[in-house]
Amino acid sequence: MDKFSTLVKSIANIFGAVITLVLVIFLGVLFYQTYPGLFIKKSVAEKVQEWTPRDIDLAIAEGFGDKKVEYGYQLVTDSPNQMGPGAEDPKIRYAGNHLACTNCHLDAGTRPGSASWVGITERFPQFSNRSNSEGTLEDRINGCMERSMDGEMLPKGSREMEAIIAYMDWLSQDIPEDRKAEFKGFPSIKIPDFAVDLEKGAALYQVECVRCHGETGQGIKKTGSAGGFYLYPPLWGEDSYNDGAGMHRVITASNFIKGNMPFGEASRDNPKLTDEEAYHLAGYINSFSRPEKENKEKDFPDLKLKPVSTPYGPWADDFPADQHKYGPFQPIKDFYKERYGLNKSQ
Ligand code: HEC
Ligand code: HEC
User: SS3 sequence, 186-244?
Assistant: First the structure.
């Protein structure tokens, strides 16, 4: 009898232990599924891959309190109404057209391949070929104010300039070293050996661009927007960037278009157009009239440093104006290489 009850007890104990074990395993699996992050040790590379740029809308939704940064964000995304023709206070109507900074610097300045501002405060001050001197971030912003926005400089120390810098500074925090390069500049196309073909550009425009930017390149304004904010910005004409802007250079515009257009279908790592297509299109949109910047002849005091596709003179070479505008650029690049030992990328 005693032996028998010992046996029963032992069996009961074993049974209990098995059940406990099963329970522990079950709970363990459940816990693992709920918090897998606690069990997997991520490699540094994975963490770097996962990093995404700061998102101000998200920050505001979570109760972000920095008014200066928020104002900077409004200025760059709603430029026409905040510091352009639609601004309430005439004293701060600095921008001359209805573009927003972020029509070219996409996703509020955070999109790789669109000269993003992620990490920008680290990249300045920087030597500027256009002024042949060391330039600050303020100078660079004013470069876009006077040209891309066809307007006036923001005074240094103004509330507007300080806010834009604060926003860019905020975007430039905590970027993993390995991710910095992808947020810099535009991707570069391989520049074709031949000149832009405007007929090819026109035909491509009908297929890839006209549905948003319109038959006459004038874009489409957002309905119900008081100051005239664009849903699809204009590519030429009176309300576009002026002839002194970087986008008016065929090589720069090709790079931008390749990495970003057609909008929603192209990205830096997944472009839609070929290099040649982007090139013909860049020439085509820049073949129409646009506002004229004054004193352009004073740009690039050292003329050797002028990008080969700068469409306005004077130049330190004898190539015709048309070739500076539409290419072929290789002979011009070869000339600077042989004569001055300069390797020009644009
Ligand atoms: C029409 C398009 C366009 C608009 C609008 C525009 N930019 Fe730019 N921006 C450019 C181009 C093109 C470059 C030069 C890229 C290059 O040289 O390769 C540039 C460069 C810059 C840079 C330097 C980027 C770098 O990595 O060195 C800053 C900063 C900048 N823009 C700020 C602004 C601000 C602020 C506004 C609005 C006030 C603005 N931009 C509006 C096209 C534009
Ligand atoms: C689906 C609509 C759409 C299509 C198609 C499209 N774009 Fe755009 N484009 C946009 C939008 C929207 C912006 C402004 C982006 C922003 O504000 O986020 C823009 C901006 C631009 C800009 C810079 C801003 C300016 O006004 O100068 C250029 C240049 C441009 N597009 C050229 C082209 C070209 C060339 C094509 C054809 C390959 C094209 N786009 C096709 C919607 C489009």
Answer: CCCCCCCCCCCCHHHHHHHHHHHCHHHHCCCCCCEECCCCCCCCEEECCCCCCCCCCCC
